[in-house]
Write a structure and sequence with these properties.
six-stranded antiparallel β-sheet; 1 helix; three-stranded mixed β-sheet; about 10% helix; mainly beta
Length: about 160
């Protein structure tokens, strides 16, 4: 599928998610960071972990700040606007089997959509995305659900809040 079609698909799925149309809406990489003193493009930024600098169109974003066992990487941005940003990329997760230290990282193709808008308190005029929705476009990770005592497959879409500065 062409990148432009994937970006449109991501925006459509995000809209469907936000409208409650039945979608189940619910990372250690080194992100690209703007050079010190470089103005942020379009006034929108994203933060991957608390204490890190503002990012614009990063190559990767950490989702599990405590241990780096989940992140999205190889992000190729198809849109970056004040309302929504979308990218084609890869979800990388540690299976933590038999433990997270001894586990293995697996990659899954994904669309990544950033949305939500909040002012950055320390930088007047700058806004940050507040939510990330990942849409898995191929195989999905499996994990052990301790409540049901069985292995289950992750949902196609998951939404998580993004770190605040």
């Amino acid at each position: 599928m062409k990148r432009s079609h994937l970006g449109a698909l991501a925006a459509s799925l995000l809209t469907a998610c936000g409208l409650g149309l039945g979608l189940a809406c619910t990372a250690s990489a080194t992100p690209e960071r703007p050079a010190h003193g470089t103005p942020v493009l379009e006034g929108m930024v994203v933060f991957d972990c608390p204490g890190q600098g503002a990012l614009t169109r990063p190559h990767s974003l950490i989702l599990a700040c405590a241990d780096g066992n989940a992140y999205v990487s190889k992000l190729a941005w198809t849109s970056w606007t004040p309302a929504v940003a979308s990218a084609v990329g890869t979800l990388v997760e540690n299976d933590c089997t038999p433990t997270c230290v001894g586990g293995h990282f697996h990659s899954y193709p994904a669309l990544v959509v950033l949305w939500g808008n909040a002012a950055v308190r320390k930088h007047p005029g700058e806004h940050r995305y507040t939510m990330l929705t990942q849409i898995l476009t191929g195989p999905r990770p499996r994990y052990y659900d301790y409540a049901s005592h069985k292995w289950v497959t992750a949902p196609v879409t998951q939404t998580v809040p993004l770190a605040a500065p």
